[in-house]
Amino acid sequence: MITALGVGGLATALALQDTLAILFSGINILVSRQIKMGDFVKLSTGEEGHVVDMNWRNTTIKTPTENMAVVPNKTIASAIITNYAQPFAECFISIPIGVSYESDLDHVEKVTCMVAKEILQETEGGVKNFEPYIRYGGFNGTSISFNVILRIKAVTDQQLICHEFIKRIYARYKQEGIIIQLPQ
């Protein structure tokens, strides 16, 4: 009888293994408060978006394409998570550009920073009091490469800021005679 109870207990434990793992993962996630409702997260498994629901069994993430990804808490507990809302939502973005070797680099820097400042001031999602800057990164086969560093209010603002910056910098470089060099 003791053997039968032991075998029965073992069978029950094996049958409930996944359920218990999900339950304990869910409790751990809810208690640790590393992820909260509304946070923008990216999991190492590929899912990313705003957390819209959390319970003991799973977490629902609203993706940038407006779909809902329901992720078991067991998966979240074992994944590497980037939480873009902690410790605060503001973050930097870096936009790479390359200009021709004939460019006056001081002039390029001045024009680029001026356009970047305008974008941060005029586009929703830009941090208005941030002074954008550039950092030259190297000599490529056909260009001098650099990155423009901007600060945004939330990671979800990066596409709009980048979009507006590229449109504006392209037009301004044409006016100024600065040649954007493409890799060949």
From TrEMBL:
Domain Mechanosensitive ion channel MscS C-terminal: 94-180
Alphabetical UniProt keywords: Cell membrane, Membrane, Transmembrane, Transmembrane helix
Transmembrane segments: none
GO cellular component term, pick one: plasma membrane
Gene3D superfamilies: 2.30.30.60, 3.30.70.100
Claim: RNA-binding is one of the keywords in the record: no
Membrane topology: Multi-pass membrane protein
Subcellular compartments: Cell membrane
Main location: membrane
Start and end residues of each Mechanosensitive ion channel MscS domain: 20-85
Name of the protein this chain belongs to: MscS Mechanosensitive ion channel
Organism per entry: Pelosinus fermentans B4
Lineage of the organism: Bacteria, Bacillati, Bacillota, Negativicutes, Selenomonadales
